[in-house]
Amino acid sequence: MPLPHGRDTAAEQRDGAWLIVSPRPKGWRARRPKSRISPEHPGTAVSWDGELFEVIGARESGAGEARYSLERWEDRHTIRVIETYDEAAEENRVRTRADEDFRRRRRRQLLLLSPIAGHAPAEVQDQWEQEYDAPASLMTLVSALPLFLFGALCTLALTIRAFTGVSLLPFSAGVLFFGVYLMAESGMRLSAAWGQGRPAGSLAGTLAWQAGRLWTARRRGKAPS
Fold this sequence. Notes:
single chain, alpha+beta, 2 domains, 6 helices
């Protein structure tokens, strides 16, 4: 008699089929019956405690629970891929889900922190995109656009002050010149992200990132790689 694995429950039905209730979907596909335009397609083949079963029904609830109906495999079907259902497979499934959940959480965090994360070096943003599917060029755009607009306003105010003596903004000349720098730097970053589809960090972000790496490496007692 096959036994459930992981956190699943299993019960044999009156018709001889088995019902497996899992707290999370497994990705098993149900049998597709024959129609006028397509032949019958067997469900996922499942190797369960030394026996071979076919998934004839699959249903997922809004809470994430999944219910699978299984019957013993019929020889008339061709086996293409077999899913193993045992403790090792369920443990691996749990690890995979935990990793996917972590990646989704990290992606949301990076997107929420785009105004800051977009200042990191380009290679770091590229790594985040590869690992967490967080669009690097979007993070650059979100971080650069506000500074570009502020810098453009500072440039306008500096020009008006130079020709008319009127102070459009209550900032010193030093702040206004710094705004001009921000406009130039952010403009180049926007051009890279919008025009070329690649990320670009800021000077301040790169320096802060390198300082953080040095500080972390010093705490760990080794040189940064």
